Amino acid sequence: MNMNLEFERRLTIPMEVKKMYPIDDDLLDIVEQRDREIKEIFAGKDDRIILIIGPCSADKEDSVLDYISRLRRVQDKVSDKIFIIPRIYTNKPRTTGSGYKGMLHQPDPNKKPDMFKGIVAIRSMHIRALRETGFSCADEMLYPENHRYLDDILAYVAIGARSVENQQHRLVASGVDVPVGMKNPTGGDLSVMMNSITAAQKGHTFLYRGWEVHSHGNPYAHAILRGYMNKHGESLPNYHYEDLIHLVRLYASGMFRNPACIIDTNHSNSGKNPFEQPRIIKEVMDARRFSGDIRNMVKGFMVESYIEDGSQSVDGGCSGKSITDPCLGWEKTERMILELADMV
Fold this sequence. Notes:
By secondary structure, the protein is an alpha/beta fold. It has one domain (about 15-344): Aldolase class I (TIM Barrel), CATH 3.20.20. It has ten helices and twelve strands. Helix 3 runs parallel beside helix 10, helix 5 packs across helix 6 (about 190-200) and helix 8 (about 275-290) packs parallel to helix 10. It starts with 13 loop residues before the first helix and ends with a helix.
């Protein structure tokens, strides 16, 4: 049977791309040191708060690096309280399939898709961030088969709300060597998320990139609460005290290693109003102070932030302003980070 697909070209495999764009031993040392520190936070051996923060979607490399350089200066001020992992999200899930799909697809948002240039662009940007700022960063695993293009650089991986029930995402997460956050699905059913965490923490045998592979389980797979949509399409939050206690009980009812949670302060938790994010952080920090169980479980926050407030169209022309979901601008972001450090 013929498929309704047009095969353009075979893409370069990850091993070859890594040879073309390698990281040297000094950068590898930075990645490994940060990996150790992040795992200690998720294991409860380090009390710092993790802050996964950055644009909804990476767009132009210079703007993203400008933003991350600003994070570097703030990180130096709060390093005893907060561990920052910048978001360089290079794949953008689209609910209807239309719109900007991220740098992997379009390294230049104003030009047609070019997947090979996209693969090179996202690896180059992650390496540049590492070299210029000392930050290994976070990315979303939208396509599990593409993870190996970046797996030697990433500090953190997120599985999105639309992917969390997918078997391949769960199995690949079980073989990832850094913490993987599983978002609750858009419908809000936490059992889906918990099943995903269970699967990711176990070892599996499965098909990956044409190979039969064996994973050993990821003990740092954990929950991300991002709010949900009800049957009427209305955004509802799940970061309140009662929601967190419910998640504590779900963890206690199973055999989970390193029970942990990251609060996504945007998406349905904020109704996609990025200016609500500082308030949400304050409420969750209050819950952490009130309950030791919540304090032990909630390891940090995920925030959508960029240089300029809000968002614009793809051809808007304002550097450092999101071309996907609205973000919190830099001045408000810096103030939020400093205030969070005071609350830790």
